[in-house]
Design brief:
Keywords: ATP-binding, Nucleotide-binding, Transport. This is ABC transporter. This protein is an alpha/beta fold and 210 residues long. 30% of the residues lie in helices and 27% in strands. Strand 4 and strand 5 form a beta hairpin. The structure holds adenosine-5'-triphosphate.
Length: 210
């Protein structure tokens, strides 16, 4: 069974068609790259696959189950979309602890290792409002990976990362893949996408090609 299947989905905002008859089929334990110019529809496609927007036509299936607004999302998903939400008055750890409290099976030790894995100091006393851009990006990635989700969606995860942090991110994402996660990654960094992806899709004006 496919992990995710989109069958001829179309999304329109009034007369503007932002996704056009997109079909795709994603397998478990693979990394899929998405490239395309600004405004081509990458984020919109991610929102649709996550059930965050309702499509006008077509359907999306996760592990064979049709996505429906009335039902909870069928698998645990971790998401980094533009402008991740943090509570800026809290430390990075406290932000993750808050999220983890919604998940029964994420311990403090898990949070410590995750912070280390993304390249943040687990006991950094600074509040997030004092974080640099790259640190916020790392915390956003940690939020997406918290609780080892089966489905990981990352929009521009390399933004603001230095060279060493980029290498660490690549290793980390490969580890999640080896553990069986399915990843969708949008990036303007072609070399990064080439290194990471089992398959790369290109989106152009809401239409998908591979
Ligand atoms: N809420 C909205 N209402 C109407 N149109 C929208 C809305 N959000 C995005 N769009 C339009 O949908 C299209 C696709 O946008 P999307 O954010 O998916 O692009 P993208 O490929 O992720 O771009 P970027 O590389 O800049 O992140 C664009 O034409 C955009 O203007």
């Amino acid at each position: 069974m496919k992990f995710i299947e989109a069958r001829t989905i179309t999304k329109r905002f009034r007369k503007n068609t932002v996704l056009q008859h997109i079909s795709l089929s994603l397998e478990k334990g693979k990394i899929y790259g998405f490239q395309g110019i600004n405004g081509s529809g990458k984020t919109m496609l991610f929102r649709a696959l996550l059930g965050l927007i309702q499509v006008n036509e077509g359907a999306i299936y996760i592990k064979g189950e049709r996505l429906q607004r009335s039902k909870p999302f069928p698998v645990r998903a971790g998401v980094l979309l533009e402008n991740p939400g943090f509570i800026k008055e809290f430390t990075g750890r406290k932000n993750l602890q808050l999220l983890a409290s919604l998940q029964k099976d994420t311990s403090n030790a898990d949070i410590t290792s995750l912070l280390q894995e993304v390249g943040l100091q687990p006991d950094d006393p600074r509040k997030v409002k004092k974080y640099s851009l790259g640190m916020k990006q790392k915390l956003g990635i940690a939020q997406a990976l918290l609780g080892s989700p089966e489905f990981i969606v990352l929009d521009e995860p390399t933004n603001a990362l230095d060279e060493n942090s980029l290498t660490a991110l690549e290793n980390l994402l490969h580890a999640y893949k080896r553990a069986g996660a399915t990843l969708c990654i949008a990036s303007h960094d072609k070399a990064f996408l080439q290194r990471m992806s089992d398959q790369i899709f290109t989106i152009h004006e809401g239409t998908l090609t591979s």
